[in-house]
Design brief:
two-stranded antiparallel ribbon, 245 residues, alpha/beta, 6-stranded mixed β-sheet, 10 strands
């Protein structure tokens, strides 16, 4: 029996065709390119991956992914392309497919298609973090801009109350800094994905990103904010390059 070919690392970019709040958002133009192009280009530029795969149920997305230099060698089944399917089973499906082809990826990075701020260096940092210790996952995080201990809820009576009123008088600098998922990429060991292990656990290490390069893109308002941030960021990068000349 032929031994499986060991692949050091694989990128899997989930990109289903059925986004409802922002129709066709995975291939809608953003910053002069199809949205998914930014993720594909970062993955290819990182040099981390033996293969960059796009997991999609959509032929148009698949064709665009191939034109951009990625692969789309299978179609994701409908039961894994609805509004309720989580990330872990989608990546596990891709790993199962690779194994059915006689390949044995060891490290697999889920890279979201709507991550125009992702950088090749960030992906390299995640790969290094995954290899650097006894961990299952490494994923992108960023800090909250405001102390979460001061968060408010709106009551049914139209008033406000604190989630943690004991911190009403605590100075901001005395409160613990809080972090959240940056929604860009998730490195994981293949066995962790296949076992359905939680990404958020003591066996996960963070890859810290600055807040100005993080924006979830789920609604039209998110998209507009992402465009504002992106234009500002690109302008700053251009200015830095001009200053170096």
């Amino acid at each position: 029996m032929t031994e499986p070919t060991e692949l050091q690392a694989i990128a899997v970019i989930p990109a289903r065709g059925g986004s409802k709040r922002i129709p066709r958002k995975n291939i809608r133009e953003f910053g002069g390119k199809p949205m998914i192009a930014w993720s594909i280009e970062a993955a290819l530029a990182s040099g981390c991956f033996d293969r960059v795969l796009v997991s999609t149920d959509d032929d148009e997305i698949a064709a665009m992914a191939i034109a951009l230099g990625a692969e789309a060698p299978f179609r994701r089944p409908a039961q894994l392309a609805d509004d309720y399917t989580g990330t872990v089973p989608v990546i596990a499906h891709a790993i199962d497919w690779l194994q059915s082809q006689g390949e044995a990826p060891q490290a697999v990075c889920c890279l979201y298609a709507t991550a125009p701020f992702v950088q090749a260096e960030d992906l390299k940092s995640g790969f290094s973090a995954l290899q650097g210790g006894d961990v299952d996952y490494a994923f992108s995080v960023t800090s909250y801009a405001f102390p979460i201990q001061r968060a408010l809820r709106l009551t049914d009576e139209g008033r406000v109350e604190m989630f943690q009123p004991e911190h009403f008088t605590t100075r901001s600098q005395d409160l613990e800094e809080a972090w959240h998922d940056a929604g860009q990429f998730y490195w994981g060991r293949a066995e962790a994905w296949l076992a359905g292990m939680s990404i958020f656990s003591q066996r996960t290490v963070p890859v810290k990103l600055p807040r100005h390069r993080v924006q979830d893109i789920d609604t039209p308002e998110d998209w507009q904010r992402a465009e504002w941030l992106f234009r500002t960021w690109q302008a700053e990068l251009s200015k830095r390059l001009e200053d170096q000349v």
